[in-house]
Structure to design on (263 residues):
């Protein structure tokens, strides 16, 4: 219902501008995402205890993001160099240099603003993509669910949960962590930019979001490795493939760096 309300607000030319100014779109989106979290926690398992664990994962992800932000914030403040002050001389040459410096600074700020905007869109896209994939996988786990009870299992329970419990737990918690991290990242990207004092602080915040997305994708990789095969040996092969691809990319970046230095 919140999604339909968002669509109505966006397609109505008389409503979308006031909705953007009043942050109604962000509030509707945030409320819808919390509803999605509840739906995932209730629909991905038949045990109340496991549903509680999924909400604990949300708290863990939020604490991790807060810790990362504090680390980047203090690291940035400790390494920030002091900016020298320029005396007020009334010479024409110094005024021209000051005007040129202000123009360069304005151009730099404009480029930084565009970069931050592009970074926010990129992170939002990745968060939505991973959330969609992990939500579907959580409600329809690999191997499907038992259609009827009997023979030591209950109807509705995942087949992998009863046949290969360790693998299912590895899949479920990797997938759930990835899903929760995606939702939290999307929620935090909806925070208005006005609460940040300057673009430097906002840039550090986006670096934290980028790091969280990387860990989010690693969780998705773990869920794929655990849920896409029946043997641990095949899962090991998946991680070996990842290492091989990462090594190829590292070699490519290293060669590009050598080429730029030689030029």
């Amino acid at each position: 219902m919140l999604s339909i309300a968002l669509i109505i607000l966006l397609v109505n030319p008389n409503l979308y501008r006031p909705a953007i100014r009043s942050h109604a779109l962000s509030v509707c989106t945030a409320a819808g995402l919390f509803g999605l979290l509840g739906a995932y926690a209730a629909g991905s398992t038949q045990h109340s205890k496991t549903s509680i664990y999924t909400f604990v994962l949300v708290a863990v992800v939020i604490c991790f993001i807060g810790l990362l932000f504090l680390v980047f914030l203090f690291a940035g403040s400790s390494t920030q160099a002091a900016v020298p002050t320029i005396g007020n001389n009334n010479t024409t040459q110094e005024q021209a240099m000051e005007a040129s410096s202000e123009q360069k600074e304005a151009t730099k700020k404009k480029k930084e603003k565009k970069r931050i905007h592009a970074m926010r869109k990129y992170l939002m896209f990745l968060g939505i993509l991973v959330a969609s994939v992990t939500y579907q996988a959580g409600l329809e786990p690999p191997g499907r669910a038992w259609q009827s009870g009997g023979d030591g299992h209950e109807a509705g329970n995942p087949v992998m949960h009863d046949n290969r419990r360790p693998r299912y737990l590895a899949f479920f918690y990797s997938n759930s962590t990835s899903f929760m991290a995606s939702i939290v990242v999307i929620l935090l990207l909806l925070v208005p930019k006005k609460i940040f004092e300057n673009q430097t602080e906002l840039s550090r915040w986006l670096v934290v979001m980028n790091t969280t997305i990387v860990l989010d994708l690693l969780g998705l990789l773990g869920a794929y490795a655990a849920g896409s095969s029946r043997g641990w040996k095949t899962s090991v092969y998946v991680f070996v493939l990842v290492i091989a691809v990462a090594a190829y990319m590292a070699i490519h970046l290293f060669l590009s760096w050598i080429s730029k230095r030689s030029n």
Remarks:
- The CA atoms of residues 104 and 208 lie 28 Å apart.
- The chain is about 80% helix and 0% strand.
- Residues 1-72+132-262 form one domain.
